[in-house]
Amino acid sequence: MLIKTAALIAVSGLMTISSYASDKSICGANDDRMPSTNPKIARALDSRTGSGGCTVTMISRTCAISAGHCKSVLKVAEFNTPMSNRRGNIQHPKASDVYDIDQTSIVYKNGGIGNDYAVMRVLPNNETGLFAGDVQGFYNVASEAPVKGDIIRITGYGLDRNDRIRNLAQQTHTGAIVMAGSRSNPSAMNHVADTMGGNSGSSILNEATDEIVAIHTHGGCSSRGGSNSSTLIAGHQIFQDAIAACLATDSQ
C-alpha cells in the first residue's frame, strides 16, 4: 500500500481526503501552497481513469524522474491538469496532454530517505504522436549540490483538505534547504517547503538556477517544526547514472 501513516511517506493514493490526515507534512501552522500551471510537471496515475498518484517531471524530450516508492502508479502522466471538482475528485486533462509511461524503461529504488528515486521514459502521445518534452518542456538536472539555506521550489499534486478544488491538483511552494547531505546519509536532503501526500516524486528546483537538485519523497514537518525529506541527486551516483543513461538514449 502506498500510504504509510507512521512513516509519513508523501504519496497520494486511492482513498478519501480524510484517510490522509496523518500524512500531513505542512511546515508550520499554515498550508502556504498556491495553485500553479507548470506544464513540465505531470500527475502520475495507475491508469487513465486513476484518482490519485504521484508527481513526475520531464528532464528531456522523453525522460522523466519521480520517486521509487511511486512505482505502482507510474503508468500514465497527465500534464496541464484542471482543478478538482467541488468534491475533491481529480479532473483529467484532454487526451493530447496524457502520455503513457514505458514500463520497461523504469529504473527505480525504494530504499528510504536518500535512496528513493525513479527514472523513466515517457512514450509519444497517442493522439498527436508528439513527445512530452517537446510539447510541455523540461528541466535540466543540476550537476552540483545545493547548500543549506538555498531556496527551493516544489510543485506537485498533493492532497488538500482545506480547499477541495485544490485537492490533488497542481500546487507550488518555496522553502529553504535545512540539510544537503550528511556524513551518515550523503544523498538525503531536508527542506521546509510545504507538501502533502501526492507530492512524492516532485522535482525540487533551486530557485536561483531553475535546475532540479533533488526528488521529494518523505514528509516530516508539523505545526511545531521538523522538515521534509528528499533524495539529493548530486549525492547519489546510481541515480545520476540512471539519469545519464536515459538522456544518452533520448529520442533524436
Descriptive keywords:
single chain; 252 residues; mainly beta; Thrombin, subunit H; 2 domains; six-stranded antiparallel beta barrel; six-stranded antiparallel β-barrel; 13 strands; 7% helix; globular; disordered N terminus
Name the structural class: mainly beta
Major beta sheet, strand line-up: 8-9-10-13-12-11
**What would you call the shape?**
globular
Query: Could you describe the largest sheet, including whether it forms a barrel?
Result: 6 strands, antiparallel, barrel
Tally of domains: 2
Radius of gyration: 16 Å
Give the count of helical stretches: 2
Q: In total, how many beta strands?
A: 13
Name of the CATH first level of the largest domain: Mainly Beta
CATH superfamily of the largest domain: Trypsin-like serine proteases
InterPro entries: Peptidase_S1_PA (IPR009003), Peptidase_S1_PA_chymotrypsin (IPR043504), Trypsin_dom (IPR001254), TRYPSIN_HIS (IPR018114)
Protein name: Peptidase S1 domain-containing protein
Domain Peptidase S1: 47-225
GO molecular function: serine-type endopeptidase activity
Can you give a write-up of this model?
InterPro entries: Peptidase_S1_PA, Peptidase_S1_PA_chymotrypsin, Trypsin_dom, TRYPSIN_HIS. Keywords: Signal. GO terms for molecular function: serine-type endopeptidase activity. Residues 47-225 form the Peptidase S1 domain. Residues 1-21 form the signal peptide. The protein has helices at 132-136, 237-248; strands spanning 34-35, 41-45, 54-58, 63-66, 76-78, 98-110, 116-122, 151-156, 171-180, 188-191, 203-206, 211-218, 228-232. The chain is 7% helix and 30% strand. It is mostly beta strands and 252 residues long. The chain folds into 2 domains: 39-138 and 237-248, Thrombin, subunit H (Beta Barrel), CATH 2.40.10; 151-234, Trypsin-like serine proteases (Thrombin, subunit H). The protein has a 6-stranded antiparallel β-barrel. A hairpin with a 7-residue loop joins strand 9 and strand 10 (188-191).
